Amino acid sequence: MMRHDFILWQMVFRGMGIFLVALIVYILMKRRKRKELELQIDKLQKTIEDANHTIAVLNEEIEQRMNQFSSRLKVGRMLYDQIMKNGTTSLWKKQHYQLFNEYYERTHSKEVAKLRKGRTKVQLTPHNLFYLILKEVGKSDKEVRDIMGISPEALRTLRFRTKAEK
Q1: Residue 104's CB: how many other CB atoms inside 10 A?
Q2: What is the SS3 assignment for 140?
């Protein structure tokens, strides 16, 4: 009977040993998995920080461009208003024509698209587009000459270069 008890206890201890080994392996595997997950979380947090930094930089660039664009449109609007009140371009430089054209194109995109249509082979400089816009808004040849400060011959040349009708 004693031998039988000894064997029984031996089996119990072996079972407990196997159970403890299995439990330790299970705990170690869980710890390893936890470490892997923590590493993944750290990588994701680093990625999030990088992404947030990139987003902040891009948002700042967008804001700067919007401010620049907004100020360009304000100047373009001012130039447009000046011309509509029969102002002249005598002191204008290329940039002024560009600003005027940008403003007009933003506010009258369909009209400008029509002006550009069929003129793909013709180089529409800011000056040429400005002329076409003046004709689009209904300015007469005399008004165009007065606004642009050009002679009738220069107007004919401009009309020819832009392929505009009388």
Answers
A1: 24
A2: coil
Q: Are 96 and 89 in contact (CB under 8 A)?
A: yes
Is residue 130 within 8 A of residue 98, CB to CB? The reply is no
- The per-residue pLDDT for range 112-122, each reduced to its tens digit, is 888 888 665 66
Conformational region of residue 139, where left means phi above 0, alpha means psi within -120 to 50, and beta covers everything else: beta
Which two tokens mark 39? 């590493």
Residue 74 one-letter amino acid = K
Count Cβ atoms below 10 Å from residue 139 Cβ, excluding itself.
19
Provide the 8-state DSSP code for 38: H
139 vs 87: CA distance, rounded Å: 12
pLDDT in tens, 17-52: 898 999 999 998 999 998 999 999 999 898 899 899
DSSP symbols for 123-160 = ---HHHHHHHHHHHTT--HHHHHHHHT--HHHHHHHHH
List own/partner pairs for 107-112 with CB under 8 A and 24 or more apart: 108/136, 111/136
Exposed / middle / buried, residue 150 (Cβ in 10 Å: 0-12, 13-18, 19+): middle
Q: Which of 135, 131, 165, 129 is nearest to 148 (CA)?
A: 131
Q: Where are the alpha helices (DSSP H) in 85-122?
A: 94-107, 109-116
